[in-house]
Amino acid sequence: MQITEKITLNSQELVNCQKLIEKVHRFDQTYSDPYLSNAYNYFEQMPTFVLAYVGQKLVGLVMLYADEKPNDLVDVYVLVDPDFRRQQIASKMIDDAQKILNKYGYTNFCFPCEENFLNRNPQFLAKTHLNLINDAEYNMATKQPTKIKQTDHLNQVLTIANLRKRDIEQVAQLQSRAFGESLSSSTKYIAQSLANDQIKSFILLFNDEIVGYCAVDRGKVDYLFGFFIADKWQKQGFGSYFIKKIMELLQEQGSQKFVLDVEVDNHCAIQAYKNAGFKIRSKNIYLKQ
After folding, report:
1. Rounded-to-integer distance, Cα 259 and Cα 198, Å
2. What digits encode the pLDDT tens for the residues 17-69?
């Protein structure tokens, strides 16, 4: 077996990783994909991927999502081809990943997982000596978004627009308050999304005032992230309308399926997504030693 570290993936590696992810999902009955880019990592030159090969075949993938400074928590995604499990491939990739993280000052990390996987592998936690931590998210998806009624009064007062560079500062201030993040982190996050050609960034306007934001990673499946409605405009139907309108616009451009993750205790957002046609399909959980 050969272990390779990569900062970014070339086109063939990207295809191979996507095939591996799809195979793992089919076998484990899971849904959430690791992000196959280093775009949001704090250290641009830090290796983001650890790839395991047997001959020319990709049999294992680790992705390091480290978007904050070294004192923050890193998500370590681990996937192994079902035909090559119980051969210490995961352990060897994790050992390599830990050396990368330590080199860049990271000592605190967790392993994203899905409840479906643990239900199918009830001895996994005992065998790996891992423990559940409190954070959890629902993975939601839809192929049939709820349509906006022509009679909806919000059609008269709300406008959807593409995010512009001059909007970044204002949106970052709103997002910082919405998620409790530092202003510098929110600014970097939004600016990087806007600079990425694969990502569409939208804002919601009420009487020309920015009241919401959402980004969409375009692909075979469109992934919605970073969504928020400013506090004083919540519980008025703005969130559901915003999501519906975004999906309507993207369907006109050929999009067929939409996916997102939302924290299990974010009840307002969950209801907005359900109203827009999303359904919960799995629960993302996090494990630590």
Report:
1. 16
2. 999 999 999 999 999 999 999 999 999 999 999 999 999 999 999 999 999 99
- CATH number for 141-283 (one of 3.20.20.80, 3.40.50.300, 3.40.1190.10, 3.40.630.30): it is 3.40.630.30
d(CA 178, CA 172): 10
CB 17 within 8 A of CB 61: yes
Q: At 281, list the tokens.
A: 């399909």
pTM: 0.92
| Coil, strand or helix at 92 | helix
Alpha-carbon gap, residue 227 to 203, rounded angstroms: 10
Residue 71: half-sphere exposure toward Cβ, Cα within 13 Å? 0
Tokens standing for 113?
Answer: 């997982």
